[in-house]
């Protein structure tokens, strides 16, 4: 059910030396009794009930907006650099929160019959529970600049995969052609999340022709159907560097 630590990632764990020293344990049931995460419960596999590590994703969005200028992205940077800096921002956040973080990770997609990359993953590791397996995939993030790949982004976040690879939280950062496209994509997210039951944050970025500025809409969906949204503005300052601010805090100077 749980992802086993691969040899390529194993050496990053300073507390462990060689794979031969690792022994399998059977303390998962006790772990889930003693280790407190969020109070939300869901069926993960069969009849086993696991607590979901649901994170405050809308607070993550506020931090993303308020710290965007710190990424030092200018209008001279291409979309590849924008993607890299934004993924790096969330990678650093995950490390600060104590997760094991991997860029360009992978998980198996049953529909395609092959592994597909994840732009970013956060894994929960606790050696008290197991010295072989991660406890769960805490977060899967995808970031895409191309409008034509908006559906592909959602399919990656909600792919039919192996037990233990279903993320407790997902974040999708997607450029879209217009505001009208957002409702179509949100319908897909809601439908797919009826099965996956993740905590979801979708961040859509588009250019508003009428106001001649870039706008961001963040949509939050939880497993029980709650929906919340926030809006932000993206502009360049007098030096050509991108910054963001929440819509209600924005005013023309």
Describe the structure.
This protein has 253 residues and is an alpha+beta fold. The chain has one domain (7-249). It has six helices and ten strands. It has helices at 7-10, 28-34, 57-66, 79-96, 150-157, 180-196; strands spanning 41-45, 48-51, 100-109, 114-124, 136-144, 169-175, 199-208, 213-221, 227-236, 242-246. The chain is globular and about 55 Å long. The N and C termini lie far apart (55 Å). The model is unreliable at 7-49 (pLDDT under 50).
The strand count comes to 10
Q: What percent of residues are in strands?
A: 25-35%
Class from secondary-structure proportions: alpha+beta
Main pleated-sheet profile: 8 strands, mixed
| Helix fraction by DSSP (H/I, runs of at least 4) | 25-40%
Q: What do the pLDDT scores average to? A: 82
**Spans with pLDDT under 50 lasting ≥5 residues?**
7-49
Shape: globular
What's the tally of helices? 6
The domain count comes to 1
What is Rg?
A: 19 Å
Distance between the termini: 55 Å
Side by side, the strands of the main sheet go: 3-4-5-6-7-8-9-10
How do the helices and strands follow one another from N- to C-terminus? HHEEHHEEEHEHEEEE
Sum this structure up briefly.
The protein is an alpha+beta fold. It contains 6 helices and 10 strands; from the N terminus they run H-H-E-E-H-H-E-E-E-H-E-H-E-E-E-E. Helix content is 25%, strand content 32%.
Keywords, separated by commas or semicolons:
alpha+beta, eight-stranded mixed beta sheet, two-stranded antiparallel ribbon, 10 strands, 25% helix
List the helices and strands and how they pair.
Blueprint: H1 7-10, H2 28-34, E1 41-45, E2 48-51, H3 57-66, H4 79-96, E3 100-109, E4 114-124, E5 136-144, H5 150-157, E6 169-175, H6 180-196, E7 199-208, E8 213-221, E9 227-236, E10 242-246
Parallel strand pairs: 5-6, 6-7
Antiparallel strand pairs: 1-2, 3-4, 4-5, 7-8, 8-9, 9-10
């Amino acid at each position: 059910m749980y992802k086993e630590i691969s040899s390529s990632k194993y050496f990053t764990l300073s507390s462990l030396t060689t794979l031969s020293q690792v022994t399998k344990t059977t303390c998962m049931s006790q772990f889930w009794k003693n280790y407190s995460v969020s109070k939300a419960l869901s069926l993960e596999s069969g009849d086993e009930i696991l607590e979901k590590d649901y994170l405050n994703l809308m607070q993550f969005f506020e931090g993303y907006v308020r710290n965007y200028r710190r990424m030092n992205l200018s209008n001279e940077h291409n979309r590849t650099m924008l993607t890299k800096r934004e993924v790096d921002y969330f990678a650093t956040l995950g490390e600060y929160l104590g997760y094991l973080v991997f860029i360009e990770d992978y998980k198996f997609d049953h529909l395609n019959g092959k592994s597909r990359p994840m732009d970013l993953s956060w894994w929960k590791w606790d050696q008290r529970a197991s010295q072989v397996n991660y406890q769960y995939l805490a977060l899967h993030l995808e970031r895409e600049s191309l409008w034509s790949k908006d559906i592909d982004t959602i399919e990656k976040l909600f792919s039919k995969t192996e037990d233990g690879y279903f993320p407790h939280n997902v974040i999708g950062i997607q450029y879209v052609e217009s505001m009208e496209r957002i409702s179509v994509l949100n319908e897909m997210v809601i439908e797919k999340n009826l099965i996956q039951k993740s905590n979801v944050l979708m961040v859509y970025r588009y250019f508003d022709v009428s106001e001649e500025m870039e706008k961001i809409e963040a949509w939050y969906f939880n497993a029980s159907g709650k929906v919340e949204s926030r809006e932000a503005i993206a502009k360049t300052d007098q030096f050509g560097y991108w910054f963001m601010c929440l819509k209600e805090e924005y005013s023309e100077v």
